[in-house]
Specification:
With 172 residues, the protein is of the alpha/beta class. The protein contains 6 helices and 6 strands. Strands 4-3-2-1-5-6 form a 6-stranded parallel sheet, sandwiched between helices.
């Protein structure tokens, strides 16, 4: 994995239900286009929501294209520690997380254990190791997706924001 052939993904944990299919289609299109341009490694952060959707699509594409590799950049080994405390909603994402983790070409732990800054460190790791970012960022400042988006802009890596694309097609 080199920075030149790596793309990171960032997005919100909650996605509008009515846009899920469009988001998935845009992610799939981006992966195929990036793979055709020489990108092979697709870094995702392992969170619920957009990350998990992107990871699932990347894993599917990896089965069709041997040059597509899902790489999980996880903030810490105990990332999912509180997922089940959320109630029944935590069970299915945890099962999907474990399945995708098993399908990943590589799993990188940025930290061993959770700390106040581990999510930010993971986000910075993904930006530092990518030359392209696929995002689903709706413009809200206080979010991990927003933080990663701003890091990518500051690093001057190219960003494809699916949220902007969907909004622009709705306004036509």
């Amino acid at each position: 994995m080199t920075r030149l052939n790596t793309c990171c993904f960032t997005g919100h944990r909650t996605l509008p239900r009515e846009d899920i299919s469009a988001i998935e289609n845009k992610v799939r299109h981006a992966i195929r286009l990036l793979a055709s341009c020489g990108f092979s490694y697709f870094l995702c952060g392992g969170a619920i929501g957009f990350d998990m959707l992107a990871e699932r699509v990347i894993a599917e594409e990896a089965k069709e294209n041997e040059n597509v590799h899902l790489v999980l950049a996880l903030p810490c080994r105990d990332q999912t520690g509180n997922w089940l405390k959320a109630g029944k909603d935590g069970t299915e994402p945890l099962r999907e997380y474990m399945r995708l983790k098993a399908e990943a070409a590589a799993v990188i732990y940025v930290n061993d254990f959770y700390s106040d800054g581990c999510m930010k460190e993971r986000n910075q790791f993904m930006v530092d190791n990518s030359t392209f970012c696929v995002a689903y960022y709706n413009g809200f400042v206080r979010s991990g997706a927003g933080q990663t988006y701003r890091m990518a802009k500051k690093a001057e890596i190219k960003i494809y924001n699916i949220c902007d694309v969907i909004k622009s097609t709705e306004n036509k």
